[in-house]
Amino acid sequence: MKHTITSLALKAIVINAFMIMNVSAAAQADPYANPPSPAFAGQTSASAPAMVSSYQVEVLATGLDRPRSLVALPDGKLLVADGKGEVRIVSRETGMSEPLTGMPPVRSVGGRGLMDISPAYDFDTSRIIYMAFPAPPEGEAGGPVSAQERTRIQQTGEVFQVNRIAKARLKEDNSGFENLEYIAGLPGRRLLSAPDGSVYITTMGAGDLTLVQKLDSTEGKMLRINADGTIPEDNPYFARSRVRQEIYSWGHRDPDGAMIHPETGELWTIEHGPMGGDELNRILPGRNYGWPNVTYGKNYDGTEIGPSARTGVEQPLYYWFPSVAVSGLMMYTGELFPQWQGDIFIGTMSPTEGKFLVRLEMDGERIVSEEHLLVDHDRRVRDIVQGTDGALYVLTDSEDNNELNRHFPGEVLRLTP
Fold it and tell me: Strand, helix or coil at 52?
């Protein structure tokens, strides 16, 4: 009898294990099966435009190591920043400069440290540049640190890095920065200066997911502060107790691009989803954008995360499924490409769906068509800006991947008709 019970138990274990393996395999076999349904027509998978765009590509600068952001200056030059914390001037006349002086110390691991630089809205007169980065503890030098050293420091209980938002003035001769000032101890991902002088700061919500929907945490939020680091009185939670008064909106996973709409003055962002669910959003004060409870994406094993819509949660204007790994956002307003006026440009970095520049043809808030540019160039697009000459300047990432045999320097590209 004992032998019979043991055999039955063993058989049950084997059957259960087989069923679990089959369920797991089924879930992982096609993670893009059963794609989510859009909330309204045109919210995803827009058709290609009737006419294919024509443009020329010029490599303006090369040799960049893990570049992060690009700024167009009013004199026609560009600022390009890399993750190590170095900022350089790029121009067609003189090429790429040496690193500018006056940068604050940045704590970088694997070349990732300086997250973003962004010009003040009144840069023409103030010459102020905002910066978001992790800094070493006070008194310590900046510079690269290995992942092993980071682990060692963290295991001792010591502070490894401190989140900083800073601003500094770019000298008139573009040789470096001066009047550096730390204005906030916040974890910035992307920065954007608004016409009223306030500064928007995006933060990631991919760590402790329980904090993203909590208003006493900066995790997964759009934050808004004044240029001196104080809280704007018209913030939705100003003077409220037990909440972070910097919060402008919440429920974000990883916004990696932001712009002020040149026609409406509204704040728009792009945001990384998990597996699927990259979004283009219009950000409204005090609104919830859903993550991690509401999303058009799935877990990386293909299982569902939650519904794609819920009362009280804002819908994206547009989403991608599968993900294209969005990065950088701008609307074209120049005259060099009249056919592109009012169109939105977004970079992509996906290892599976391609690396290219997205052009969304717009009709108000409605996406009319989606075109993929620079497909043959096949580089991760980090940032995009419009120059004073009307050309489109595109920042591509460096890669050093032995497994995929992809070894490229970062570049600044110039697109013209």
Answer: coil
